[in-house]
Amino acid sequence: MTDLERIRHSAAHVLATALLKIWPEAQLAAGPPVETGFYYDIDLPHRISPADFERIEAEMKTVVKANQPFVRSVVPREEAIKLGENGRLAALSDRAFPSKYKLDILSRIPEGEEISLYTNGHFVDLCAGPHVMRTGNVGAFKLTHVSSTYYLGDEKNSQLQRLYGTAFKNKTEMEAYFTMLEEAKKRDHRKLGKELQLFTFDEDVGPGLPLWLPKGAILIEEIEKLAKETELAAGYQRVRTPHIAREKLYQTSGHLPYYAESMFPPMCLQESEGGEKVTYYLKAMNCPHHHKLFDAIPRSYRELPIRFAEYGTCYRYEQSGELLGLMRVRSMQMNDAHIYCTADQFAQEFRAVNEMYLKYFKIFGIEKYQMRFSTHDPSKLGQKFVDEPELWKKTEDMVRNVLIESGINYVEVPNEAAFYGPKIDVQVWSIIGREFTLATNQVDFAVPRRFGLEYTTSENSKETPLCIHRAPLGTHERFIGFLIEHFAGHFPVWLAPEQVRLLTVTEAQNDYALRLERELKEKVVRVALDDSRDKLGAKIRLAELAKVPYILTVGERESSSEHVSVRSRKLTAPEAKPWPDFFHQLLEEIARRSL
Ligand SMILES: [Zn+2]
Ligand SMILES: [Zn+2]
C-alpha cells in the first residue's frame, strides 16, 4: 500500500467507527482503499443518503480529533470466530447478533494464514492492514456518494450500501483534488468525445464496445504510427494474431479457470461430423498467442532477445455496472509486446522499455508519472505467488536496480505482484493533475515454462527464456480517453484529426484558398476548406469549436500578397504570415510531433 492508500484505508476505519456510533446495529463487510478514496460496504435498514453525510462526518471528526492509535493484534482463529459470534467484529462493543460478514470473510482466510485485528478506540475490525499510526493522521476527508452493491458482488447475496469517501494528507491537497475534479468535468472524455465526433457507443453493438468515428480513427492511426516507428527503431518485430483461440490455450496460460469470469462466455462448436465439441474463447490477452509464435520455430540464444509487438485487440467481460466511457470497455486495442530474453539480457531490456516510456511521456507532455513496483510476499509462495523463491529474488532485484539506476520515480508495493512475477503499474497525471493508470508491465518467469518455451544455449543445452510483458501506451481506449482530458480536446497538430481549416472572407478568394488546400493535401496535411457564404466570424467560431489547431483566413489582402492570417491557441492575436513560411513551419511541427 502507498502512503495515501494507507491514509484512505485508515479513513475507512474512522468512517466505520463513526457509523457505529450513530447506528450500532450496522453490519459491515469490506472497507478497502480505491483509486479515488475509500469505501465501506454496509448492511443497514436505514437508507443512507447525502443528507446524512454531515452527521457522519461530524462523528468522524471526533474520532480523528481523539487521535486514537491503530493497534494491531494477531489472534488465533477460534478467538476471532468467538468475537465474530459475539457481534464484536467491526463493532464498538459486543452485540446481540453475530458479525456475519466478518465471520464469512474470516472463513475465507486460508488455514495457516495470520489473522489480525485492528483496534482504534472501542472499534475492533478484522483487517490485514496496514494503517497509519493514529486516527489523527487522517489529515482531511470527505464523504462523496453512496451506491448499492451486493456482498462479494454477487446478486445472490444480500444487498449492501456502499458509502464512498476520499481522504488526503491535508486540507490543501484535498481542496486541490476537488478543484481538479471540477476541471475534469469540463474535460470529460465522454462529453468531448461526442462534441468532437471521435467515438460513439450503440445499444445494438453492445455496451463497452466503442465505435470509432473517422476523427477518432485518425487519433488511433497516428498513435499506432508513432508506436510502430518507435518499436521498429528499438528492434521489435511486428506480428499478427487472431482474436479467438481454443480453450486449451488458455488452460496452458492459466487464464482458465481463474480468469474465466473476465472472459466472454465460450463458443462451443463441432468441428467435424461426429467429432467432439470444441470450445473457443475470445482472447482476453495477447500473450498466449505470442508465446505460440515464439514456439513455432526452434530458437537459438543468438536470436535473443526476441521482441514481438502487436496492437492486439482483446475482449474482456467487465461487469456492465463497471463500464465507463473509454476508461472501462469490453473491447480494447493494446499497445502490446512480449520480449523473450535470457536472464543476462533482462536488465538491458527492462531499461530500454523504461526509456521508451520516458520518450512517450515527453511527446505527450506528461510531466508527472510514477511507476508502482509490486513485489511478492515470501510467506505466500506457493499460494498467491508461484513457488520460485530464487527467481523472485533475482528478478525483483534486477527490476529494482534498473529503476534506481535510471532515476525513475517509483514506489515499491509488497504483496501485490502478479502470480508469475513482479509487476510495474505505470501511473500518469494529466495536465490538470488527475491520476490514470495507463499500463502494466510484467516480468514473467513462470508462464514461458508452462508453454514449454525454450531456446538452445551456447553450450547446446535448453533453457527457458524470461518474458517481459509491456504496453507503454496501454490500450487505445484508455490512452485516448486520457489524452482527451489531458489536452482538453486541443490535440497537438500532429495528432489533431483536422490540422488546418481554411476560411475565405469572400468568394473572390476561392481560387487562392483552393490552391493552398491542394498544396496542403499533397503533403498529407489534414485540411478542410470552409468557403461557405457564412459570415467570417461564424466560420471562425465553428473552427474554434472543432478545436482545429490552425485556422487560416484568407481575404483580399492575404490573397494578393501570398499571405495567410493565422489563428492558433498559441497566439494571442491573429498573425499575418507569408504562406511559404507558415507552410514550412507547419510541416516541421508535424514531423517533429511538437506539442
Ligand atoms: Zn484495516
Ligand atoms: Zn502479455
Account of the 3D structure:
- The protein is α+β, with helices and mostly antiparallel strands.
- It has 4 domains: 174 residues, 2-Layer Sandwich (Threonyl-tRNA Synthetase, Chain A, domain 2), CATH 3.30.980; 224 residues, Bira Bifunctional Protein, Domain 2 (BirA Bifunctional Protein, domain 2), CATH 3.30.930.10; 39 residues, no CATH class; 92 residues, Anticodon-binding domain (Rossmann fold), CATH 3.40.50.
- The chain is 35% helix and 25% strand.
- It has 17 helices and 29 strands.
- An 8-stranded mixed β-sheet has the order 11-16-17-24-21-20-18-19, with helices on both faces. Strands 1, 2, 3, 7 and 8 form a 5-stranded antiparallel β-sheet that branches. It has a 5-stranded mixed β-sheet with strand order 26-25-27-28-29, sandwiched between helices.
- Helix 14 links the parallel strand 25 and strand 26.
- Helix 1 packs across helix 2.
- It is globular and about 90 Å long.
- The model has no long low-confidence stretch (mean pLDDT 94).
- One zinc ion binds next to helix 1.
- One zinc ion (ZN) binds next to loops.
